[in-house]
Amino acid sequence: MQKHALITGICGFAGRHMCDYLTTVPERPKIIGIDILDTPPSGCDCFYKADISSDKAIKDIINQTKPDFIIHLAGTFAKGRQAYNVNLLSIISLLESSFEHVPNAVVVTAGSAAEYGLVTPKQLPLNEQTTCKPITSYGSSKHLASQIALYYHRVHKMRTMVVRPFQLIGKGVNPRLAPGAFAQQLVQIINKDSKVIKVGNLESYRDFLDIRDAVEAIWALCRKPAGGEIFNLCSGKPTKMADLLQMMIEHCGQKPKIEVDPSLLRNSVDVSKVYGSYQKIKNLCGWQPKRSLIQSVQAMLG
């Protein structure tokens, strides 16, 4: 019998790639999508336009569809109260409904490397045992949401897992993130609409992971669940932001002027270098990144 996979945030960057990948796997599940937007990918078999923070809406959908796998990718990058409202209420609604109607479902919820927050060079590469000290409302809200997911495993024995993606890149990456902003501006330059790229801090180092590798990791966990566990999704390599930008510029064959925009510089504490270890998920299910950074750049820029 065909399994059912429910993807929240299916119209977003990660959700679309997750859906696309699931259409290719040998054990292809029926794909059920939820989003507040109404532009689901073509591979979605059953779509619900709904606010995942709504208890009644989520309860009805889960009761109707009885998913075997729940992949929670919905969320917001918003700051302050909105980050907590969306990122916390959504996980509570989802897990309460899942516990009531499908307590044996495998649940993978997306946290973030932003949960680690303030780290020292001695702590690198970050592993899942690293103490979390988030320094943004986004990171803090994601960390609290992760703890809620783990609580449902401890208390209710649900098969909940948390993935902590580092910086995901690829086709359709959000322009609110630096790689997406670079890509958007380079397209404008190619189209002769601009000659300038505005940037923030190019001296920081980040761990970039291709979104296609990330969704493969999530499905590997669905197929070999380890309830109550956290898994880093990362490349294990630090890349300087300036080097990523230069790689993207060279790929486009352009020579734009680069300007630092003060509004893009963080006023609060920033972390100069972050990268993680994926050894834990590799040990469990053999996953490791397959795509190079240049392959990710090619996907972003076409």
Chain-wise SSE layout:
Layout: E1 4-8, H1 13-22, E2 30-35, E3 46-49, H2 55-65, E4 69-72, H3 81-101, E5 106-110, H4 137-156, E6 159-165, E7 167-169, H5 178-190, E8 196-199, E9 205-206, E10 208-210, H6 211-223, E11 230-233, E12 239-240, H7 241-252, E13 257-260, H8 279-285, H9 293-301
Parallel strand pairs: 1-2, 1-4, 2-3, 4-5, 5-6, 6-11, 7-10, 8-13
Antiparallel strand pairs: 9-12
Give the gist of this structure.
With 302 residues, the protein is of the alpha/beta class.
Could you please describe the fold and organization of this structure?
38% of the residues lie in helices and 18% in strands. The protein starts with a strand and ends with a helix. The protein is built from 9 helices and 13 strands. The protein has a domain of 207 residues: NAD(P)-binding Rossmann-like Domain (Rossmann fold). The strands form 4 sheets. Strands 3-2-1-4-5-6-11 form a 7-stranded parallel sheet, with helices on both faces. It has 302 residues and is of the alpha/beta class. The model has no long low-confidence stretch (mean pLDDT 96). The radius of gyration is 19 Å and the shape is globular.
